């Protein structure tokens, strides 16, 4: 369901590759939602969130270092957006996941979808220009 398409490329290979990984995490999350054979998804949800936390930090650090190296004028705005993403992911209340697991997965997917599409197409694309 989640696929890194040509339109998401920003023209900087290592960033495009890292964005693909974020799409892969979103795709794994979607597949977990659709998997009817897993009754209790709590542990898998936590694992995906932890993977997202770790990878997002890695990716944002790499992207920010690149922006710094090219004296990117919009770096401060990007850093604010990155920090907000990390805060949102770090503020997840794991005790609430168990109440309605599929609903929680949907909320993660909505957040990821909005972020991936909006941030890459509107903000990250400008880095490559």
TrEMBL record:
Q: Where is the Hemerythrin-like domain?
A: 11-127
Query: GO terms for molecular function, please?
Result: metal ion binding
- Recorded superkingdom: Bacteria
Instruction: Quote the InterPro entries the UniProt record gives.
Output: Hemerythrin, Hemerythrin-like, Hemerythrin-like_sf, Hemerythrin_metal-bd
Record carries keyword Iron: yes
What Pfam families does this protein map onto? Hemerythrin
Sorted alphabetically, which keywords does the UniProt record give? Iron, Metal-binding
What the entry lists under SUPFAM superfamilies is as follows: Hemerythrin-like
**Keyword Flavoprotein part of the UniProt annotation:** no
Q: Which PANTHER family match?
A: BACTERIOHEMERYTHRIN (PTHR37164)
As for family, the record states: Belongs to the hemerythrin family.
- Report the NCBIfam families cross-referenced here: bact_hemeryth (NF033749), hemeryth_dom (TIGR02481)
Kindly provide the name given to this protein in its UniProt entry: Bacteriohemerythrin
Organism for this UniProt entry:
Clostridium colicanis DSM 13634
């Amino acid at each position: 369901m989640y696929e890194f398409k040509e339109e998401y490329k920003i023209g900087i290979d290592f960033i495009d590759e890292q964005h693909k990984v974020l799409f892969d995490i979103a795709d794994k999350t979607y597949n977990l939602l659709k998997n009817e054979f897993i009754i209790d998804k709590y542990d898998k949800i936590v694992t995906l969130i932890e993977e997202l936390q770790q990878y997002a930090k890695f990716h944002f650090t790499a992207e920010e270092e690149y922006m710094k190296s090219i004296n990117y004028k919009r770096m401060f705005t990007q850093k604010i957006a990155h920090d907000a993403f990390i805060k949102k992911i770090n503020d997840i209340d794991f005790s609430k996941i168990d109440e309605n697991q599929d609903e929680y997965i949907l909320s993660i997917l909505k957040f990821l979808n909005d972020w991936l599409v909006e941030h890459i197409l509107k903000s990250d694309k400008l880095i490559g220009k």
